[in-house]
Amino acid sequence: MTRSHCTPSNAVTRRGFTEALMAAAVAPFVRGSARELPNFVVIYADDMGYGDLGCYGSAANRTPNIDRMAAQGVRFTDCYVPTPYCAPSRASLLTGRYPFRHGLMTNPAPDAGINDAGLPATEITIPEALKPLGYASICIGKWHLGHTERFLPRTQGFDEYYGILYSNDMRPVQLVENERVAEYPVAQSKLTGEYTRRALGFLERNQKRPFFLYLPHAMPHKPLAASEEFYTPETREDLYADVMGELDWSVGRILRKLSELGLESNTLFMFASDNGPWYGGSTGGLRGMKSTSWEGGIRVPLIARWPGRIPAGLVSREICGVIDVFPTLCQLAGVPPPSDRVLDGRSIWPLMTQAGARSPHEAIYSMSGYQLATVRSGKWKLYPRVPANTAGTGPGRGEWVDPRGPDGVTIIAPYEQAPPSQYPGVRTGDAPRPMMLFDLEADPAEQHDLAAQHPEVVERLRRMFEETEREAPKPPPRTPRPGPPPPKRPTGGELRYDRVPQRPEGSP
Questions:
Q1: Is 86 a catalytic residue?
Q2: Is 37-362 a CATH 3.40.720.10 domain?
C-alpha cells in the first residue's frame, strides 16, 4: 500500500510536529534567505467539470490563460477528489488525508441546520505546516470547513481570510473578513473580481517573504454569476461560459502579477476543481456528475506551472489526487511530514517534472457519505457497492428559478441558471450493480462492465478496498426520517445562524 503509518515509538504530537518544523527552518536544505523558499498559489474552482477548460477539450468555454498555464507546465489527466461534493474534498486538499481520517464527511450548511460539522482542530493543514518557516498565508473564497467559531480559517493556520464560509447558494450569503461579517447582502456578480483584487493585494504585500495563497473561487457553483464586464445577456444561452471566462481572467491577472513582481521563477501555481460539475457544466464525456462516484463526479482537472522547474507541455496520465497537494508542498518547502498520523497523499513532484514518472499510488479511493465507494488501481476501477445513477431529468430552461428566492442580491439572470435538463455527463452504460469493473484506459465513460471477464482483477481490488475499509470508522446508524427537514432561512449580518427573518404583521 502507499500510505504511511506511524507507531507509538516514533509518533509525534501536534505540538511536537510544530517544534520539528521550527528545527527544519534552519536545516541545510533551506539554508539561506527566506526568498529561497518557494511560494505556492493554489486555485480551487467550485463544481468545475473535467471538460470545462479548453485544454481538457471544451469548445464552449474560452479559457486562454488557463490553457496557456497548462502549455507552460504539466496537465494531469487522471486526478481524483475523494468525494463528489465540496467540504470533504477541500479538507483532503489541505491535510493530505482521506475524509474518513480527517473526520469531515459531510457538508456544513447553516440553512440546513448543520452547524456542528467542520475540520477538527487536531488536523494539520498546509498553512500550519508552512507557518514555522515564515510563510504568510491567506484563504480567499469558499472555506466550507466549518462556519462556527471553532472551525474558522484562522483557527486552522491561515493568517487572513476573506470570503463566504460555505457554498454561495446557502443562507445567509455574507462575506466574512477574518472573524467578522464584512458585507451583507452580497452582490454575487462581484465575487470573482473582488476575490481576485484581494489576491493581488496579498501578493503585493508579501512579495518579500514566502507565501501560500489559497483561492477557492465561488464559481462555477450555482447560482452562476458573472460581472457586467463578462456577462453577455444578448446570448441568453451561455451564462456558464461567461462565468468560466471571468475565472480564466482571474487566473491571468494573478499570473501577470507574479511576473510583474519577479516571482514567477520561485512560485508553484496549481489549479484544480473540488469535484465534478453541476448542471450546465461538462464532464468531457465522462459518466455521471457531481454527487455521483462515476468518473464525472470525482475526476477533475489538475494543472501545475513553475517556469524553470516544471517542463513546458508535460502531460501526466498517472493516477493522483488532491490528497497529494499537502505532501508535495511540504516536500518543496523542506517540511518533514507529521509522523503521528496516516498521510494518504504522496508527493507528485516527480510526476510534475519527469516524463515517464510513475504514480506513487498503488490505488486511489473515493467515498460517498460515510462509506468508501470506489477503488482505482492502474487502469482498473472497481465499485464494490452499487454506484448511484442519477438520470438528470427535470424542467426545461425557461421553467427554473431558485425556489427559495434571493438572499439579498444573490442571483444574476435567474432564468439563465442551468436546469436539470442540462445534464453535464454521460447517462448511458451498463446498469449499476455491485462489483462493477471498468477499464478506464479503453472505456473512460464507464460503459462496459468487465467484471465477468476479469475475476482476478475484481478479487485483487476487492481485497485492497476491504483492507482500507477496515481502517475507516463504521458509519453512524441510519435513522429513518419522515422526510427532509424544512429549510431554514437564517439572516446575515453576524456570525450566528439562529436569526430568521420576521414575517410582516398580518402576513400569512
A1: yes
A2: yes
